[in-house]
Each structure stands twice: as structure tokens, then as C-alpha cells.
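[recover] target loaded
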């Protein structure tokens, strides 16, 4: 009985030490500085990045030119995209299709960067920490077939290009965020995470 009590005590001490270590690490973890920008304001990427510190976009800028919320089918029709028929899965349930598209028009420019590339997979449209929207893979691929299915692209030095980024609500959020609700949300485009988190507010 005494041996069992000693084992339980040791386990409790180890668990408490682990909890303390996790809390201590999180408290001391370096938080990114947040910088907020406005629509029509060129935002320099500088040495900030998402997940890879070797993908430096110094020389690139992003400028949000406008935004629009459209039903998914209407968005596809506007940009002459043929949508596949809504099929069913192996259980006979309809395959999920987003209700709407939050279209963000962005001008990307590159002055002298020859190595970095912009990654649309990490470029998110967010509402604080509650909602994160990612570009729709199917629409993105159909709008920019020259990228051959890639979320990433590069611009030649001294060039610029305007993209329409088709953000959609993931199926896990679809019932919580109908189109009427999302129109009332204050959204922002995140173009970097570290060491500076740069966000462009969408009016």
C-alpha cells in the first residue's frame, strides 16, 4: 500500500512538473507583432513569412483592391467556370459545395525578388480567431490554370498581377456562418505570420 502511495505521489509530481513546463513555455513563447493595414494600401512582405523562414518575399507587396460576396454558383457563372454536377458519396449523401464565395481582389507586385513565391494556401481570410477561410481549390484552379493546380506562384521582377482569390467557408463552419451572417463580420486578409503578422482589414 505504501509503495502504491509513493508511485502515485511521484506520478503527481511528474504531472505537475510537466504542466508547469507547458505553461512556462507558452508564457515565454515569442508572440508575433501584429500590424494592420487598410484597403488600397500597398503592404510590403519584407522578411515576414508564414511557416518557412527561407521563403522571404522582400520586394513583394500586396494591395487589396476590393471585395465581394457571391453565391458559389453565381461566382462560377461570373468567371465562366463550369461546375461539376453535385454528386453523392458512397452513402448517398450530397457532396458538399460551399454556399458562397468571399472574393478578394488583390494586386501583387514584385520589384526585385527572384527567389520567393507567394503561397495562397497560407494566405487566409479571417474573422479574429473564430473563422478562417481558405481559397477554394477548384475555383482557384479553374481561374488560373497556368498554375497547374498549385496554390503558389511567383512574379517576375518589376511586374505585377491582379488576382481574384475565391475564399469559401469550410463545411465544418457552413451552418454556423450562413451568407447573411458573414456579411456582418469584420474580416481581414492575413499575408504573413512571423515575425510580424500582417493583416489587411476588409471594409
Amino acid at each position: 500500500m505504501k509503495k502504491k502511495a509513493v508511485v502515485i505521489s511521484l506520478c503527481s509530481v511528474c504531472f505537475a512538473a510537466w504542466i508547469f513546463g507547458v505553461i512556462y513555455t507558452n508564457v515565454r513563447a515569442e508572440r508575433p507583432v501584429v500590424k494592420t493595414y487598410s484597403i488600397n494600401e500597398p503592404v510590403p512582405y519584407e522578411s515576414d513569412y508564414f511557416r518557412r523562414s527561407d521563403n522571404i518575399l522582400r520586394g513583394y507587396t500586396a494591395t487589396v483592391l476590393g471585395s465581394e460576396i457571391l453565391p458559389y454558383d453565381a461566382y462560377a457563372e461570373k468567371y465562366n467556370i463550369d461546375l461539376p454536377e453535385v454528386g453523392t458519396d458512397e452513402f448517398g449523401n450530397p457532396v458538399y459545395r460551399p454556399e458562397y464565395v468571399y472574393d478578394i481582389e488583390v494586386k501583387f507586385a514584385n520589384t526585385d525578388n527572384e527567389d520567393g513565391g507567394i503561397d495562397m494556401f497560407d494566405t487566409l481570410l479571417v474573422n479574429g480567431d473564430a473563422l478562417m477561410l481558405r481559397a477554394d481549390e477548384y475555383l482557384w484552379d479553374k481561374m488560373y490554370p497556368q498554375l497547374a493546380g498549385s496554390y503558389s506562384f511567383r512574379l517576375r521582377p518589376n511586374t505585377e498581377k491582379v488576382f481574384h482569390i475565391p475564399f469559401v467557408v469550410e463545411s465544418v463552419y457552413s451552418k454556423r456562418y450562413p451568407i447573411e451572417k458573414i456579411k456582418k463580420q469584420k474580416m481581414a486578409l492575413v499575408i504573413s505570420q512571423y515575425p510580424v503578422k500582417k493583416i489587411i482589414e476588409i471594409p
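[recover] notes: Residues 1-30 form one domain.
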